Amino acid sequence: MRDPFFETMDQSLHDLLVAYRKGEPDALGKLMPLVYEDLRRLARRQVRQWPNLTLDTTGVVHEAYLKLARQHTLDASDRAHFLAICSQAMRQFIVDHARQKRADKRGANVVLHNIEDLDIPVQGEADELLLIDQALRGLADASPRLVRVFECRFFAGLSEAETMEALGLPLRTVQRDWMRARAWVKDMLSGQQPLPARH
């Protein structure tokens, strides 16, 4: 039997998502406390993944909030979908931060970073992140779904099950798309550009 506290919390979250989707101005402010710890978990993963970008967890969460607040409406159906959208906002902020950091500092020594099975020689973390973002922009033209799966798995650190729930996809599709998206990014960064089937 499900705890009534969690049922009430889920209903409140759902009601606030509906209100936010309708453009109610204070809905996002009421929504954030319900997911704040989840957002901190996502941001903490990002901060750990890019330690040389001098990001802090609270700053990443707050910047994602500001980015969402500027949109005024959001089409999120549930907690997992909302978190996936927040992870996109975090990615955008981190990429912007990396661009600024790269603009501030040029010419670092080339280092080799390992992203799962992606070995990419780059100038540093800011460059690495910008290259990944550029690869994802190229992939978005061919398959936006692969980009969403990559964002959930790589940037948000969601598990396969969480990604499945956030995007409303079957588990096998998430697994296949994650493998294809990683291969695309790796190939793009190594100069090869496969042409995935459109989704």
Describe this structure as you would to a colleague:
This protein is mainly alpha-helical and 199 residues long. Helices cover 70% and strands 5% of the residues. The protein has one domain (4-189). It has helices at 4-21, 27-49, 57-71, 79-104, 125-142, 144-155, 160-167, 171-189; strands at 111-115, 118-122. Strands 1-2 form a two-stranded antiparallel ribbon. A hairpin with a 2-residue loop joins strand 1 (111-115) and strand 2. Helix 6 (144-155) packs across helix 7.
Q: How are helices and strands ordered from N to C?
A: HHHHEEHHHH
The total of helices stands at 8
Output mean pLDDT. 77
Percentage of residues assigned to helices:
55-70%
Structural class: mainly alpha
In total, how many domains does the architecture comprise? 1
The oligomeric state is single chain
Radius of gyration: 18 Å
First-last Cα distance? 39 Å
Percentage beta strand? 5-15%
Largest sheet: 2 strands, antiparallel
Query: Within the largest sheet, what's the order of strands?
Result: 1-2
Gross geometry:
globular
Number of beta strands: 2
Q: Name the poorly predicted regions.
A: 1-7, 107-117, 119-123, 194-199
